[in-house]
Specification:
By secondary structure, the chain is mostly beta strands. The protein has one helix at 4-17; strands spanning 46-53, 63-73, 78-89, 92-107, 110-126, 144-160, 163-169, 196-203, 205-206, 211-222, 228-237, 241-249, 259-267, 272-281, 292-300. The termini are far apart.
Length: 314
């Protein structure tokens, strides 16, 4: 059995330097989780769900689930969205409930949208899952504690049949995340919500009637965290199968990157898309786990009369 102290040290180092928001390898199919301006962009009501288990076989590693719904209103000029996200990392258990509103206008053959969101975070820590080295530390409790934390954010998104780009900051407030047990301790000295910046861009490049290239990029940044960039290259065959790979840069010094990820998406009908992904870790933690896995599904309410002549890949 590998040393539990080595594993915990690695995990704590990663958590202290990492971003607070969950990361998803299939970001190109899950943009509502990053940008509220994406709400209603499909022009039809759509449901999606994603499940991610990170660093399999490493105790206390992140596990995330995301469920979302978004739809257009008022001649498709307004979008409304709901996003529910759950993250469990070690002793922490977090539920994020978000509502999005977006307004769009036609520009250059595409849609430029501006979005805002409100969010409630249900943040819980079960101190019974932690063994403190120094007993009596006022920052550690003896039971499960929880708090509700409100926040809000904004985003801008441009969508075209062959191109998309967006920037967003889903949380603007630096709320306190600690639980105070000693009146002499100032909570905000220890842990606060960090503002996260996301930038995304993607293209569709036709090669032939049967083959299209789909490069994409996601930039993630938070204060006091390394810049993280996902560089994705995909190939679409017959508008039905999307195969791609992602190189995730940053996060750990002295390594060739954070991970190399593989993505497969199947378009079963105009309504249903299913995607799977696997991350091969490049950092030092690769010796203690078996990679990360994701499963994604999207279902859109497209009427039989309307149909879909141009499959959407954004």
């Amino acid at each position: 059995m590998k040393s539990i102290f080595t594993i915990l040290a690695l995990l704590l180092t990663i958590l202290l330097s990492a971003q607070q928001d969950a990361q998803y390898t299939q970001f190109m199919f899950n943009k509502l989780a990053f940008n509220p301006a994406y709400a209603g962009s499909h022009k039809v009501p759509c449901f999606s769900g994603i499940y991610r288990t990170q660093w399999v076989n490493l105790e206390g590693a992140p596990v995330s689930q995301n469920i979302s719904f978004h739809t257009p209103f008022f001649h498709k000029r307004v979008g409304f969205g709901i996003n529910i996200q759950h993250d469990r990392i070690g002793p922490t258990n977090t539920w994020n409930y978000s509502m999005m509103y977006a307004y769009r206008t036609e520009i250059g053959g595409g849609d430029l949208s501006f979005g805002v969101q409100g969010q409630i975070r249900d943040y819980r820590v079960d101190w019974r899952d932690i063994s403190a080295i120094h007993s009596g530390d006022a920052l550690f409790g003896i039971r499960e504690d929880s708090k509700l934390i409100p926040n809000f954010g904004f985003g801008i998104y441009y969508g075209h049949e062959h191109f998309y780009a967006g920037i967003s900051m889903p949380r603007l407030l630096n709320n306190d995340l600690t639980f105070q047990y000693d009146g002499n301790i100032q909570n905000t000295d220890f842990s606060k919500e960090a503002r996260h910046f996301f930038g995304m861009v993607g293209l569709i490049l036709p090669v032939s009637d049967a083959v299209k290239l789909k490069p994409a990029m996601l930039i993630k940044y938070a204060n006091n965290s390394p810049l993280d960039v996902d560089l994705h290259a995909g190939v679409i065959f017959y508008d039905k199968v999307n195969v791609g790979a992602t190189y995730r840069v940053g996060g750990f010094q002295g390594n060739a990157g954070e991970s190399i990820d593989f993505v497969l998406q199947m378009v079963f009908t105009d309504r249903i898309k299913v995607g799977i992904a696997y991350d091969y870790t490049l950092s030092d933690i690769r010796s203690y786990q078996s990679g990360s896995y994701e499963l994604m599904m999207e279902y859109c309410l497209i009427s039989k009369q309307r149909g879909s002549t141009n499959p959407r890949f954004f």
